[in-house]
Design goal:
- By secondary structure, the chain is α/β, with parallel strands linked by helices.
- The protein folds into two domains: 58 residues, 5' to 3' exonuclease, C-terminal subdomain (DNA polymerase, domain 1, Orthogonal Bundle), CATH 1.10.150; 233 residues, 3-Layer(aba) Sandwich (Rossmann fold), CATH 3.40.50.
- It has twelve helices and 13 strands.
- The strands form three sheets. A nine-stranded mixed sheet has the order 5-4-6-7-3-10-11-12-13, sandwiched between helices. A two-stranded antiparallel ribbon has the order 1-2. Strands 8-9 form a two-stranded antiparallel sheet.
- The two termini are 35 Å apart.
- It binds adenosine-5'-diphosphate and magnesium ion.
- Magnesium ion binds next to helix 6.
Length: 326
């Protein structure tokens, strides 16, 4: 694993004077042992595990946020647009592996953001996840961030052999590449949530710059069936998405998640396919990419971006993973 050389900046719970010994024990037992964990897990979880009122836990999480802002670990609440602009110009990105696709995204997958990729079976979602797991490890001049990957596989489609073949086709040392991908197989939604709770600990000690979740909600779909479970399912997905947002911001990682599509039968105009998961995933993803098959190529369309028009790019899937059409 690539070790974190910067001074890892872990801020302990003790920095907040409001945390008494009993609360501290409850938090640590629940795996919350730093200020970053506090804000990633959020007020609801903190209230649940400590027995605090919601008001108290919101207050605690806010204080943790302020400390992290003061330590320059997370973005301050009030910043000038100039400062934001200068920061955005320098934002770190991971190449998709295809020049066309990179251009579509303004240079590649962004860190501190969630990119949702949806499309029909075989459209290339998993290939994108594999390729970016290789690309993120490359030098900055080669489209990477010299960082590692956490790959959460819910559909049992992660293949180390594919990482090897993509690396070989790109003349990259696959031994190192494999070493820097931590794979977690999630067997059900509760297990997936457990894995996501643990992620902070892994990122804290290693230079992870990409988190892949392939796919984000298949377990929820399989487990929460029928109308009666819909609101519980949406609540869980909502919580998942908010954790992912906070992880991406706190640890400066790019989050790529995949999503299936379903057909909407009563569509008269336009495309009858929609990503599953309803508005929750849509609203919490920063960027959304819709993949379509086009013969042996693929079309990526950027949907609902805060600053991109709805444009498309043509890319291809080859031995080297995501690439440009020949
Ligand atoms: N080694 C390979 N070389 C070229 N193309 C491949 C290779 N492996 C997979 N593919 C392409 O990827 C497609 C599957 O894409 P995948 O990412 O698994 O789809 P999804 O995850 O969207 O269901 C295959 O249909 C094939 O076109
Ligand atoms: Mg797949």
């Amino acid at each position: 694993m690539i070790n974190k050389d910067n001074n890892s900046k872990k801020l302990e719970l003790d920095i907040l004077d409001d945390i008494g010994p009993a609360t501290k024990i409850h938090l640590i037992e629940a795996g919350i042992d730093s200020l970053k964990d506090l804000i990633i897990r959020g007020p609801q979880d903190v209230a649940d595990v400590t027995g605090m009122t919601m008001e108290q836990s919101i207050d605690l999480c806010n204080k943790a946020r302020i400390k992290l802002e003061e330590a320059n670990i997370i973005e301050r609440t009030f910043v000038s647009a100039t400062e934001l602009y200068n920061k955005r110009r320098k934002i770190e990105r991971i190449s998709t592996g295809s020049k066309h696709f990179d251009e579509l995204l303004g240079g590649g997958f962004e860190v501190n953001a969630i990119t949702e990729i949806y499309g029909e079976f075989g459209s290339g979602k998993t290939q994108i996840c594999h390729t970016s797991s290789v690309m993120v490890q490359q030098k900055r001049t080669d489209g990477g961030l010299e960082g590692g990957v956490i790959y959460i596989d819910t559909e049992n489609t992660f293949r180390p052999e594919r990482i090897v073949s993509i690396s070989k086709a790109r003349n990259i040392d696959y031994v190192k590449v494999l070493e820097n991908i931590v794979v977690a197989k999630a067997f059900n939604s509760a297990h997936q949530e457990l894995i996501i709770h643990e992620i902070g600990k892994i990122i804290e000690n290693s230079n992870i710059r990409l988190l892949v979740l392939d796919s984000a909600i298949s377990h929820y779909r399989a487990e929460y069936v029928g109308r009666g479970t819909l609101s519980e399912r949406q609540q869980k997905i909502n919580k998942l998405m908010h954790m992912l947002i906070r992880i991406s911001e706190t640890y400066k990682v790019a989050v790529i998640l995949t999503n299936q599509i379903q057909s909407v039968p009563d569509t008269i105009f336009g495309d009858p396919f929609r990503p599953v998961g309803g508005n929750i995933i849509a609203h919490s993803s920063t960027y959304r990419i819709y993949l379509k098959k086009a013969g042996k190529n693929r079309i990526a369309r950027i949907v609902d971006s805060p600053y991109h028009p709805e444009i498309e790019a043509l890319f291809s899937l080859g031995e080297e993973g995501v690439t440009d059409p020949v």
